[in-house]
Design a protein that fits this description.
Order of helices and strands: HHHH
Helix content: 55-70%
Number of domains: 2
Region (Disordered): 1-82
Biased composition (Basic and acidic residues): 1-68
Shape: rod-shaped
Structural class: mainly alpha
Length: 136
């Protein structure tokens, strides 16, 4: 009887150990399947975000193209405002003899200086030569 009880206990112990091992294996398999499913869901979410981000960037790029361009002056390029063109024909440049000489040294022509400063060619020639006092 003791042998039967011992054998039954041993069989019961072996059966329980096998059940625990089987349960542990099933738990491990279930967790692996859950990890795989979670990874698959994360990848799907990542792909969805990537597609959404590309669509958003494309929409922003399209909106950016439609938006008026900025000029260096800060005014908008497509506002319909035209640049004011001033009539400068009657503007006079301040006649400065040293400035006139400096421009001549840089290569400005006598005729060009006369036109810009609004004086005669002879006056510019005298100013460049330094002959006489020039009063304008």
């Amino acid at each position: 009887m003791d042998d039967d009880r011992a054998r039954n206990r041993e069989e019961e112990r072996g059966r329980r150990a096998a059940e625990r091992a089987e349960a542990a294996q099933a738990r491990g398999d279930r967790r692996a399947a859950e990890r795989d499913e979670a990874a698959r869901l994360r990848e799907q979410a990542r792909d969805a975000r990537r597609v959404e981000d590309e669509q958003r960037r494309a929409a922003l790029a399209e909106a950016r193209e439609d938006r008026p361009k900025r000029r260096a002056s800060g005014s908008l390029a497509r506002t319909g405002e035209t640049k004011v063109v001033r009539d400068t024909r009657n503007y006079r440049t301040n006649v400065d003899i040293s400035r006139m000489r400096q421009l001549a040294m840089r290569g400005a022509t006598v005729e060009g200086l006369a036109k810009v400063f609004g004086v005669s060619i002879e006056t510019v020639e005298k100013a460049i030569e330094g002959v006489g006092v020039m009063k304008l």
